[in-house]
Amino acid sequence: MKIVQMAALMAAFIISTAALADDDCTDPVADWQPQENLRQLMIDNGWDVKRIKVDDGCYEVKGFDQDGHRVEAKFSPASLEIIELEIKFTGSGNRSGYLKKRSGHQKPANNKDSKQRPKVNIQ
Amino acid sequence: MTNRILIPAAIASLLSAMAANAREITFTTELKSYGGDGAYVALYLTNEAGQYQKTLWIAGEKSKYYKHLSGWARGSGLRSSEYDALTGASVAAGKIMTVTLDLEDSYIDSGFQVRVDTAVEDMRDNRNDVVVSLTTDGVGQTTAGRGYVQSFSYSF
User: Does ipTM top 0.90?
Assistant: First the structure.
């Protein structure tokens, strides 16, 4: 009886470990496109690609976009569709090509305790 | 039914009373050209003994890095309720950040201090980069920081 209980416990542990190790991208490896395709795609878009690596089952690209902003992006390795994009706006490069994300995603002020959002300006 | 009406009325009168005893205050923080990524900056109030009172502003959007603002992190316990709606973009080297907010009069000339903690990726963290008392006499006075802060002042 104890053996059955132990086996059940171990099976549960293995399943939970597998769940924790889930990747962000789940494309079958057989469908993956070569990294060179992605590199060429980004170069065609004006990016300066510094590195491509595999992270959590996705292609991760680090480099600079067409305006010189530092970028880090994740792509689906099979479709080469972009999944995640992080941009660091530095210097006086043009930012108009990107959506004004912040204006639409600001958290509403917490009215519960009358906390007012300060006015902040960075020059 | 009467109670339901009375309670919002009481809250409204309390809020208006609080607003009457508050004043608009602007904190100006200029960073040095330290040659690194954007700085995370915590602006917060403590009492004379250095005990945390409230968060004024956190510059820096990723909460996983807030622990590096160590003085503020210890005081606030990193509870999101402490900094909800009080966060924004990090501040690049050499830039000036101005934060304008309404602050209760009870914090002014009563021994409370404004503190600034700063942190930059791959560089050192600065607890108490700036510590200044919040007084009427201190309005317009510029204080130099110990870390990435070039100068700090407030006005009301």
Answer: no
